[in-house]
Amino acid sequence: MRIAAGLIFAGAVSVCASSVVWSQAAPRTVGAAPQAATAAAPAAAAPQPASVAAAATPACANPDALGVARVVQIDTTGGPGFGFEHFKQLDFLRDKEVVLTFDDGPWPVNTPSVLKTLAEQCTKAIFFPIGKHATYYPEILKQVAAAGHSIGSHTWSHANLNNKKLNEQQRKDEIEKGFSAVKWALGASPSPFFRFPALQHPPEMVTYLGTRDVASFSCDLDSFDFKARNGQQIIDTVMKKLDKLGKGIILMHDFQKHTAEALPELLRKLKAGGYKVVQMKAKAPVQTMAQYDEELLKNVALPTVSSRPISSVVQTISE
């Protein structure tokens, strides 16, 4: 169940959108590199998180691509909230602008399929991986980062943080261990972007994220792809809601097979409908806590990859 829309952002400082969201790029022309306008960063800028650091992007090969119309940089100081379903303070999207977001990955087949579609349309999204999934499939999550998408976190185990059976420390553990797991999988800190499972926002945990300078993400429209019988139902749900709202942060799941199937046609419909994608990047990476980084390495059975050369691992003994 969802809590009522309009939850007050507990502990937040009243700020204007311009002090939190900075536009980094003018709308690109079709065929131009999606990130070309952001290539020259100020010399004193904070280091980019792994989830947004990428090499120069080649020119888009698709002349009809959806692309990226605008890139915005997010200052997460104090833990701003995004998504009008719960956080109504920062209305930074212009008419016909959307933000694509995906939860619950990384996952075999489905996440790579989503990445392929996004690449074909030369567009970008935010991914909110589950910590456990990140430790299962670190190479897939690295592919998300290498493609230039922003990566946040979605807790360690997808626990509902509104569950009264969890005490405050257990809720904090879910948040912190999730970020540490994503950091381990990427080999670098992700963005300080967090989405609560089931969009359940305990006010005290929203306040806690504020003390950690982590932005909370809700959404403007939910695709309900986890309930969909097929890809067409997802497309119909998103477009109907979007045409009513005119803009918004779209919630989807790269964990879901039907979402991967629906995405190519959905992005084409967004383009045909005159919608434009906004890419959200963090001003600085999240600062994980050493105790959780160390606990993850000691107590979790993580997959390992040998760094030995092939000649020392595989030897021909008979032909």
Q: What tags apply to this protein structure?
A:
319 residues; alpha/beta; TIM Barrel; 3-stranded parallel beta sheet; 9 helices; 31% helix; 13% strand; disordered N terminus
Describe this structure in words.
The protein is α/β, with parallel strands linked by helices and 319 residues long. It has a single domain, classed as Glycoside hydrolase/deacetylase (TIM Barrel, Alpha-Beta Barrel), CATH 3.20.20. It is 31% helix and 13% strand. It has nine helices and eleven strands. The chain has helices spanning 110-120, 131-136, 138-146, 168-186, 203-211, 231-245, 257-272, 290-299, 310-313; strands at 21-23, 70-74, 81-82, 97-103, 126-128, 150-151, 193-195, 215-217, 221-222, 248-253, 276-282. The strands form two sheets. Strands 1, 2, 4, 5, 6, 9, 10 and 11 form an eight-stranded mixed sheet that branches. Strands 3-8-7 form a three-stranded parallel sheet. Helix 1 (110-120) links the parallel strand 4 (97-103) and strand 5. Helix 3 (138-146) packs across helix 4 (168-186). The longest helix has 19 residues, at 168-186. The chain is globular and about 65 Å long. The N and C termini lie far apart (63 Å). Mean pLDDT is 85; it is low at 1-14 and 26-55.
